[in-house]
Amino acid sequence: MNYIKIEGIEDAYPERIEGTSEWYCCKIAANCFCDLYEAEEIVKNGHVYEGMNCVLIHYPDGQVYYPFMTKENVYVEAPAFCDGVLYFIVADFAEKTIQIVAFNTEDFEQKTVFELPLDEVPSCYNLRIGVVPAMLLCESENNVIEVLWPEKRTFKLNNHEVINFRDGDKVYFSEWFEDEEPDYNYHEQVVVRDWETGEEIERFDGRMHRMPNGDIWRM
Q: Residue 186's pLDDT is what?
């Protein structure tokens, strides 16, 4: 059995990043471990948030990469992987900005590909990067999902419907159902919507899952 010592990371749990079999990430808090929206509330209440960072671990060699430094009032969210690039949400509550930072896994270069004022984000609750392609998404409690980048779109969804990926002018969602008692049978359907209008154009039973090589498994 081969043992590899991962240097420089303590009290953190490595999580595999969906869409790749080579990269793991660890979120590391300076003190208070919380979600992005909770960190925003801490700052809004007049306190200093000591910072959330995210480090990368490459498989199989266990090499650790530090794309960011831990900073006060800065929250680095776990990345999403798309076409060889890791996309991070970086919320800077001091500067009142939201950035998307791209980390290229081929040459290890990184750059800010999008920035917007924090007050233009509907909410940091359920703010995330979706793939494929990479998109900045914000989901609200009234079944509305907004695409903030790279193009702006708004989709009104059904209950228990979530976005999966986009393919050209079609966007694929997953909607789950649970029958009432006594059976409580659980099942899912794939909902296909038009990218321009958001209207439902197709629906079928099953689910779709993105594999590390980019293939989509339909089950």
A: 83
